[in-house]
Amino acid sequence: MSVTTLQPIRLLKGLRIGRDLPLLPLAILVPFVFIAVFANLIAPYDPTEPIRGAKIFEPPFWSAGGSTRTLLGTDFQARDVLSRLIFGARVSLIVGVMGTVVAGSIGTTLGMVAGYVGGWVDQVIMRVTDAWLALPAIVFAIFLATMVGPSMWNIVIILGGVYWTRYARVIRAEVLSLREREFVKLAEIAGASRRRVILRHILPNVMNSTMVLASLTIGVVIIAEASLSFLGVGVPPPQPAWGSMLADGRSMLMVGDWWLTIFPGLGILLVVLATQLFGDWLRIRLDPQQRNL
Amino acid sequence: MGQFIFRRTFYAIATLLILSLTIFTVVRLTGDPVTLMAEPGAQEADLDLVRAEWGLDRPLPVQYAAFVKNIITGELGQSFNYQMPVRALYFQRLPNSLELALAATLISFFIGIPAGILSAVRVNSVWDHVGKTIALLGLSVPGFWLGLVLILVFSVWLEWLPTSGQGSWRNLVMPAVALGWYFAASLLRLTRSSMLEVLRSEYIKLARLKGLPAFVVIALHAFKNALIPVLTLAGINLVVMLNAAVIIEVIFAWPGIGRLLYEGIFQRDFPLVQGVVMEAGIMIVVINLLVDVLYAYIDPRIRLTR
């Protein structure tokens, strides 16, 4: 077959680290993933238990009153902020990645089906997409989280169930033009079933877009998780999440205990910044037509 | 045009029906709202009374029909805590949210539009890089964290601005910046791409060939046309800000719609939560419909596309 399909793997092969790979995002993301995965080996203390002998609200070690025992200070239960940050990275990573996987799977599947099958199936899927888009995603997520009840895996499913709409729209539009292409027509003439056409001929061709959208969704999902946890409908205590750490630190903001607010926020900022930069890089890499956008 | 309005109105109604069905289903699927709301140790007989009062003992299709009828007639139920209709509460808070959202829109204009124009006029210059950095930070810095940092810097350390409440412009500055931040970045990106597109067009080339000064070409000829999509986005952003500013309103104790939703969550006021979410959906769908129709009225080409 003469049609060339842009497979993500092929484009990412043979990249030289340092020349082709984006250094700044990787310099943030690689340590972030490492810390999240090996949190229980790296963290100096149990993130959910008070440190024996430590005071509450100890500042970071370089401030007056801080100690090198707790490098980034302690919180309202005399728990180690650094350890909570490290374990919070794990929550952000899991929710960010898994929420994106759920959103991407739902959205890509619905987009492909809507675009390829067309007719009333398309109408129904697109009306549901519209209805989902009618509510601001975060309001929808807050509503669902309130009703379903807090747990990390609930949040994964909720955020996946809220952020799939963009995939559905983009993928559907792509499939509308793909299905007129020769290789799809030929597969149909050869007697391939709808299922086979979608899985073998359509899916590989929309994977690029799905991956680019996914790289941009991760950051959005991480911020959404932090927002839900901040409001108390996200990851339930005592499990440490960056959003709930911000909520815990809020009451002490007025007396100037800045470390409880600054560090978790910096964590979110750096990780989301890195995923955005990585997403931009991936977009240019995978879709030369978008380079000018 | 008539056909266009008809089709769009039909879509809007379909959207609202699906939305109401979703909200209805989620609330019923996730358990019994009465048990969710009740204090621990409440008597089962009392719970049954409340269920009967809310009609929760009837078959589901009947309940859904009643729910839709209530939406149409504007009766979104009674808030448990306030003992007031949800719609009345929603519209009571609307002016406050509007005040905050307008201020945030103003701030997003002040940051987003000039920076977007500069980036487009001087592509790949220092200004363009500054613009790109602002756009990137707009997406990466969570607005609510920015709000907390602003409180820390301007209220706690510098003691310039009050931390919360409503009143003078001094109360408004920080929440408006925290809320407008993200939207400034989105306006910036759209202004830049819209300006780039217009600047490439024939009539701009002609204006330049005529020898008009660069400022006149950019400010009068290009900006005017590039502004249309930007204003549309700003309008849509405004509606979103009205309804989605939950965390910002909580942080700054701003008595708007977002805070109403938050109160509903924490007082387990389930009719309030359901009502506010539905009201937000209705508002956004109606505004989108109006924008679509207005667009089609202005630009006949839109009527023909689906």
Describe this protein's structure.
The complex is a heterodimer of chains A (293) and B (306). Chain A is mainly α. Chain A contains 12 helices and no strands. In chain A, helix 4 runs antiparallel to helix 10, helix 6 runs antiparallel to helix 7 and helix 11 runs antiparallel to helix 12. The longest helix of chain A is centred in the C-terminal third of the chain and has 38 residues. The N terminus of chain A is likely disordered. Chain B is mostly helical. Helices cover 80% and strands 0% of the residues of chain B. Chain B has 14 helices and no strands. Chain B is flat, with a radius of gyration of 24 Å. Chains A and B meet through helix 5, helix 6, helix 10, helix 11 and helix 12 of A and helix 1, helix 6, helix 7, helix 10 and helix 11 of B.
Task: List the defining traits of the structure above.
heterodimer; A: 293 residues; mainly alpha; 67% helix; elongated; disordered N terminus; B: 306 residues; 14 helices
In terms of DSSP E residues, the strand content of chain A is under 5%
Unreliable spans of chain B are none
Main structural class of chain A: mainly alpha
Major beta sheet of chain A, specifics? none
Main sheet properties of chain B: none
H-E string of chain B = HHHHHHHHHHHHHH
Pattern of helices and strands of chain A: HHHHHHHHHHHH
- Spatial shape of chain B: flat
Please tally the β strands of chain A and state the result: 0
In total, the number of strands of chain B is 0
Oligomerization? heterodimer
